[in-house]
Design a protein that fits this description.
This protein is of the alpha/beta class. It contains 14 helices and 20 strands. The protein has a five-stranded mixed β-sheet. The longest helix has 19 residues. It is globular. The termini are far apart. Bound molecules: iron/sulfur cluster (SF4). Iron/sulfur cluster (SF4) binds next to helix 5. Iron/sulfur cluster binds next to helix 5.
Length: 507
């Protein structure tokens, strides 16, 4: 088993940097479907460019490299303790190499372990099989933005816009549609869902996530569930939520449903939502040497380039902004404008926002651009380099953002998925805008960072620190303006009307 650890590092690297062929095919179809002149079409074009960059340079597709979840099948008698040790060492090494972002945080103290190891991290599920010569290992890297959109229902219940969901297949159908609708663009749509009908609260979520190990284009062996999957794929794509929640015809790229027996008193429907950066790979290893014998999920042919254009298509109508910004800069913007930011910006997410509510900022934020981003950062010869830097889900900062804008004079917030009413009110009152960057486009945005100027609050860990960056032509779309307009509120309302139309029973 001398090669086992190196094989796991290869699996982690491939999973973090290259999408499997079935996901690539689904994203290629989305790209063909969406009008390239729309915001959703632009977002897909950026995503395609990002996929190519990550693959070419072996960089993380998204800066949130997620919770590593391994499904492992071993021959009877294989030493699982030794395998666990080697997998943990491989995780730490992949983190050192910048293929994984340090993502394991002590839930009591908030301290980041720095190597992706800790209680519950990584997730390892072992099973045995009667195949003496081989070990099968599958890996899913699923980020926090989409993980936060997982949802579990206990039937029967009343669902907003869909009415009563009973303890039958039609009730299940309604739960799935609601799960997709409530995610909006916050989980970096176009997304895919794994569903479990039944089980208990724990096994239901686990089985839902296991569905994500199926390929997007397989057909369910159970004809009833196959019909449900097919229905959901077509119905969800009428909701007009679209890529990043910008509106559009592609909201879902996959729906996979499994079922477990349940207790008579319980009827759970558990939904695991995964983003377009659907990172899943697998290998079969020689049980004696640990060498890779073959890859699962891969095609015979090497991956082809996805991008057909130049990523963020520039039309000449973009608004060029130089940070720090003035009130007049942002009051002149409206929803739908594309901006290109050059100058100095600061990152800040959960820990920074919480800190700023109780302490003065470590830097002057007057006129600043605050980027909701937890980057991947490497340090070489004493210099920091950002190697992945897409936006994180902004709605988590909703309890703080309005106060921070008013208190410190922040003029623009960059993130993804949009924010709520309180932030919108603060933006209107104080003069600020929300700029939606393309979720998961970590490689595209890392290349906009010219220099790391400084870092504050590094004690919060690399993703949560406040990074001071100089950027050049950083592209984003205004989705909330200083005049009280929010694309996110509009899309949520319009998609709720579409959802209502799907309330009539189908099964
Ligand atoms: S693509 Fe979006 S939801 Fe997915 S891991 Fe990246 S930031 Fe999170």
């Amino acid at each position: 088993m001398q090669s086992f650890q190196e094989s796991i590092i290869k699996l982690i690297t491939e999973t973090s940097t290259n999408l499997p062929p079935d996901v690539r095919r689904a994203m290629a179809r989305a790209l063909e479907t969406e009008n390239p002149a729309t915001s959703a079409g632009t977002a897909l074009s950026v995503i395609a460019t990002n996929i190519d960059m990550a693959c070419d340079d072996e960089g993380p597709i998204c800066q949130d490299t997620g919770m590593p979840t391994f499904e492992i099948k071993t021959p009877v008698g294989a030493n699982q303790i030794e395998m666990k040790r080697a997998i943990r060492e491989a995780i730490a090494e992949a983190t050192r190499r910048g293929k994984l972002r340090p993502n394991s945080v002590d839930s009591i103290t908030g301290a980041n372990s720095g190597d992706n190891l800790g209680p519950g991290t990584p997730v390892l599920h072992f099973d045995q099989w009667e195949n003496d010569g081989e070990i099968e290992i599958k890996l899913l890297l699923k980020g926090g933005g989409c993980e936060n959109k997982n949802i579990q229902y206990a039937l029967p219940l009343e669902l907003p816009h869909l009415g009563r969901a009973g303890r039958d297949l039609d009730g299940v159908r309604k739960c799935i549609l609601h799960a997709i609708w409530q995610a909006q663009g916050q989980g970096c749509s176009a997304g895919a869902i794994g569903v479990c009908v039944g089980g208990d609260r724990t096994s239901g979520y686990q089985h839902a996530k296991e569905q994500l190990f199926r390929t997007l284009d397989d057909v369910n062996a159970d004809a009833r569930l196959a019909a449900l999957e097919e229905y959901v794929m077509s119905a969800a794509n009428t909701l007009d939520i679209g890529t990043m929640g910008f509106g559009g015809g592609v909201t879902l790229i996959g729906c996979k449903v499994g079922a477990l027996n349940r207790l008579p008193a319980s009827f759970f429907v558990s939904v695991a939502y995964d983003c377009w950066a659907f990172r899943r790979h697998g290998v079969v290893l020689d049980a004696v040497t640990g060498e890779i014998k073959r890859w699962l999920y891969k095609d015979e042919q090497p991956a082809r380039a996805m991008a057909t254009g130049e990523g963020f298509r520039l039309t000449g109508n973009e608004k060029r902004l130089r940070a720090p910004l003035t009130e007049a800069d942002v009051r002149g913007l409206k929803v739908g404008d594309v901006v290109l930011i050059t100058g100095e910006i600061y990152t800040g997410r959960d820990a920074v926002h919480s800190h700023l509510m109780k302490h003065a900022p470590p830097v002057d934020l007057q006129g600043s651009v605050l980027y909701h981003c937890g980057p991947v950062v490497m340090k070489n010869n004493g210099h920091y380099k950002i190697t992945a830097a897409g936006p994180t889900t902004s709605i988590r900062e909703e309890p703080y953002q309005g106060d921070i804008i008013r208190r410190y004079g922040v003029r623009a917030v960059i993130g993804k998925g949009g924010m709520g009413r309180r932030t919108l009110e603060a933006m209107q009152e104080a003069g600020a805008v929300y700029l939606n960057a393309i979720g998961g486009a970590a490689q595209v945005y890392a290349r906009c960072v010219e220099e790391v100027l400084d870092v504050n609050l590094l004690e919060f860990g690399i993703p949560e620190a406040m990074w001071h960056l100089r950027v050049n032509n950083f592209p984003a779309i205004v989705t909330m303006d200083a005049h009280g307009n929010s694309l996110h509120a509009d899309i949520e309302q319009a998609s709720a009307l579409m959802l209502q139309k799907l309330a009539v029973p189908v099964f």
